[in-house]
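We emphasize that the prediction below concerns an isolated chain of 485 residues; any contacts that depend on oligomerization or on bound cofactors are therefore not represented. The input was used exactly as deposited, without trimming of termini.
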Amino acid sequence: MKLKFWAAIGLLTAATLYSCDDETTGIGQFVADEDFILAKSDSYTVSTESYLLDSVYSRSNTAYLGKFTDEGYGTFTSDFLVQINCPENFQLPDRLQSIDEATLGLYYTSYFGDSLATLRVQVDTLTTAIQDNGLDKDLYYTNLDPTRFYNPQSLPLATKDYTAYDKTVSDSLYNTSDYYPHVSIDLGKAFCDNFKSKYDYSIEENGVTVHPYFKDAESFINNVLKGFYVHVTNGEGSVLYISDIYLHLTVSYLGRNSADTADSLYTGVVPMTATKEVFMSTRFQNSGLQNLVKDPTRTYLKTPAGLCTKVTLPLETIYEDHKSDTLNSISLSFEKMRDQSSSPYKMGTPTTLLMIRAKDMKSFFENNEVNDNRTSFLSTYSSTNNAYSFSQLNRLIANIFSEIRPEIEKGETEWEQWKADNPDWDKVLLIPVSTETDANSNVIGVDNDLSVNSAMLIGGKDLNESTDEDQKIQMNIIYTQPQQK
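Result of the prediction step, given as a token string:
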């Protein structure tokens, strides 16, 4: 009620003073005499509903691993496919004797859930190389089927039980900047021997010995290691946010002793890493969200790849009411409901929402677009108002009106057919996102939020005249009507 009270006060003040958008949008075809412009206000109820996202587009450098069950949002699991990069003309030490150990290190700076919950991770080698040439956008959707690239009937390469907080590490070390939390998985002797046999294959080029399978990432991936599928097979309770992935090779090789009188056997560790130059994609699975979609009394946000909110704007009514007016300002606020969960591991609140037309969501993320404040808008959660607020939506509405005006003018039959052919014409989505900014705080990147977050919003699709005013979401409009002398 407090939020709506101050919104109403602000609306009346703006209407009195008439402070318009710097890009005021006209709907009517007129030239106004500034001395006779009267500012007025209006409001319309919008309808909202939860919208299930079975997957989202993501090219994140972070991998996610784990499983967690929430009392309200069901079970969430995450696993990933990853390739290891091979720098050009990669070389192991001269006079290599053996690869004694190979470990896959999953390094993380944060996690969600129970730090002491025990989970079992399994690593499988890929049997089909992933050809990431940028043309197959489906590779970066979070419902990518890993069985396209590995054989689930084959024996796993390795398994390991782990906890998010490694109890084998002393507190004195864990709390220092020198320690980087990680899960280290031994890949076994057979992996080491196969890796060395691939490296041992060499040819002469211009009098120089080269290892053709290791000359670049493509040769390495196609001939040595196609990649890994990393997934949880047992246990639940936490999700790791993995920022770095390393393949560590412990090798033995011959070298001269310090006196240069004889050969000595040395050991060393050679790191190889997953980088942005090679493929990585996380799969997310949510179960138990269908009942939330059906809830008519509120809407939900759940990340990653879970739920967003679909908003139906009363555009046809607004058009009929204001087709001869200038819309100076349109705003919407979506109030967050209090989290009543009793779980000791409460999800975070989505920090930023993207408002975008439903028909544009797919292309927006696939084309790496950013908000333009004309067809796409960002709002940051305000703990003061407990809401996400959007302004300057008159730009969006004018954009849509310019699209539908020719269709309306064709006649009622054609207009009804156009609406049937374009069912999302009056729909926008509220999607949790993360943003990247430059040194001047300009937004240069907008991606789907992949952290474990959730929120309930006031609203719903079964609103009617008897619905409590506190449950209704109002689109507030300031408009002007020129008066002729």
